[in-house]
Amino acid sequence: MSTTMLDQTTAMIEKTWGQPIEALEVLAVRHPCEDPLLRSAMHTRTALAVTDNAAAVHQERLHALTRPGYVPAFYELDRITESAVNLRVAHTESRTYLQAIRRVVEAHDAAAPADRTPTDLLIQAAVARSGHAPHTPDQMPDPPVPSASLGPPTPASGPRR
User: 76, 65 in Cβ contact below 8 A?
Assistant: First the structure.
């Protein structure tokens, strides 16, 4: 039996986050703000599970309509064509979801270096937002920004609309 795209995705997510998929599903639902990339990966995996199931249904229908020794009736030709098209669409959607999850995993790997904890990243982000980032000795601080004047506006040059 070959591995499905859902199996590949599950293995990829488990490897990246280092936990079984059941535990990750709970984390993604109960603590969505702690790891938005995990939540995104799990949502995409859910969509992949739906399309994977749809592909299996269409494939079974197509196999039933084209089994050896079976001669389909004229009215079944449309069902065969429709099932084949739906199977191709489901496979394409599955590949797209798999690619999306790969991108989320790449983003996770790029965002969290191995030597830094999520707490370190949150502290760094908070310091950067507060404007109190420490300056290196050889770096000059940015000059202060002049405040905007509170006087009346000056007329703009050019035509008005």
Answer: yes
